[in-house]
Amino acid sequence: MLALLNIFVDNMIPVLAIAAVGIVLRRRLHVDPAMVSRMMFYVFAPALAFDAVFTSDISGGDFLRVYLGTLALMAAVGAIAFLVLRGLHAAVPARDTINSREFATALVATFVFNGANFGLSIVSFAFGAEALTYAVIIYIAGSTVAWTLGPYVSSGGAASMLKSIKSVLRTPVVYALALALALKAAGISDLPPALSRTSQLLADASIPLMLVLLGLQLGGFRKPDRWPLLLTGTAIRLLLAPLIAIAGAALLNLDGAARAAFILQAGMPTAVLTLILAYEFDTDRELALNLIMTTTLLSPISLTLLIYLLQNNIV
Question: For 263-285, b where at least 16 C-beta lie within 10 A, e where not — what string?
Fold first, then answer.
């Protein structure tokens, strides 16, 4: 019990404290999360992706295993969630029937995880810089699925997959990652100090800003409802997904920092992108808010236990 408490204090309290700053900024000073989100999207997240990958010793083979493994993991979580939600739909009373908008929202919320705001900071605190690099790769791979499969599910299959792929190609972090890989492939290991220091400073600032942004986003959430869907989606996101990741890590032969990052990222709460997709495709916005809020509030408990199990080689 004391070990779990220490993990919670050392790894979760800093994350929650910085996120709380964001909540206060929104509710007291009315800071707009949209502007901070744009800064993160266009500047800080790309800088973090570039710096983490360029300065790492990860081989091309390890990169592909983690990247493709993340795609497979999210697909597996989504497929199992689809079956579970179909079963729930059949089991609930007629008056509580799950409509198509609720179903799409809940399904997206199970496989679109918060690998940035929450994931990168917690992986870094718990397992260090090497694990952070793998966590960045997982976050980028997760974003690929989120921006392609997410719109497809949210639109009920009406959204063009080609259009979704084009949206991924408009994401700056993809080009930052490609640049880092190209430089490494060319044998360039050092940049001029003016460039390397700029990249490092922006990367160092990105994680605190991500957590402030998380708080700004959480500051607008309200009281949850629709408990059967809410509890089912939360259980899949926080409990089932990391169990699938444990099996996936074994199949991919991941170990050390890569394995820890892969499993821990899989247990992160639902990403705010779920709400963005709900607005874009007119699915259930309130349910999206509730799933994001509930998984975020409960995840410090599940993640504390998961970190303990990983640090002690129990899973």
Answer: bbbbbbbbbbbbbbbbeebebbe
Structure pTM? 0.87
CA distance 121 to 269: 13
Block residue for tokens 């899949």: 236
Burial of residue 296 (CB within 10 Å: 0-12, 13-18, 19+) is buried
Owner of token pair 């009373």: 93
Quickly list DSSP for 75-98.
HHHHHHHHHHHHHHHHHS-GGGPP
Strand locations in the chain (E)? none
Three-class SS of residue 113?
Answer: strand
DSSP secondary structure letters along 273-311: HHHHHHHHHT--HHHHHHHHHHHHHHHHHHHHHHHHHHH
Please name each of the domains of the chain with its CATH number. 2-311 (1.20.1530)
d(CA 289, CA 287): 5
* Identity of residue 118: F
Identify the CA nearest to 54 among candidates 207, 187, 210: 187
Task: List, for residues 5-19, the tens digit of each pLDDT value.
Answer: 999 999 999 989 998
pLDDT digits (tens, 9 = 90+) for 147-184: 888 888 887 766 666 766 776 777 788 888 889 989 98
